[in-house]
Amino acid sequence: MSIFVWAVIILLFIASFAGFIFPIVPSVLVLWAGFGLYYVGISREELSILFWIGMLVLTALMFLADFLANSYFVKKYGGSKWGEWTAVIALIAGSFIIPPFGILIVPFVAVFAVELIVLKNIKQAFFVAYATLIAFLSGTLAKVVIQLIMIGWFLAEAIL
């Protein structure tokens, strides 16, 4: 039975990375499903209280990663609040439009259009759109690193 549970946990961990290509997939919730399955299916004692607190902190950092990266880069390049919100909405829409490239193309085009209307300056609108692309890639990289830390910590607690 535990081999089957471990196989499902590993599949959940692999599936959690799909959220980086399809943002509609809640990566961190899939990851937590793996932790929960281990807890109920294998051992209620192996994962320490420090592990659970650490996972909560790292989960919060994952949620903040996109917001902080987006806010930083859009502000750095002189973007508006409209541009910030457009990037978030377009990212979700882009995951359904020409996946997986839509998560890069749709926010760039949408933010460019919005910032062109708001700023009325094609060069600055382009730089803000470019900034949303950099923000997405930076936030995604941060989330991948955090998620790998979470999986590594889990494996260290569960196996060692």
Short summary:
It is built from six helices and no strands. By secondary structure, it is mainly α.
Beta-strand percentage? Answer: under 5%
N-to-C SSE series? HHHHHH
Number of strands: 0
Oligomer: single chain
Radius of gyration: 19 Å
* Mean pLDDT over the full residue set: 90
Structural class: mainly alpha
Helix content: over 70%
Main beta-sheet annotation: none
User: So how many helices?
Assistant: 6
Rounded to the nearest angstrom, the distance between the terminal CA atoms is: 20 Å
Structural domain count: 1
- The best one-word shape is elongated
**Weakly predicted, low-confidence segments:** none
Descriptive report:
It contains 6 helices and no strands. The chain is mainly α. The chain has one domain.
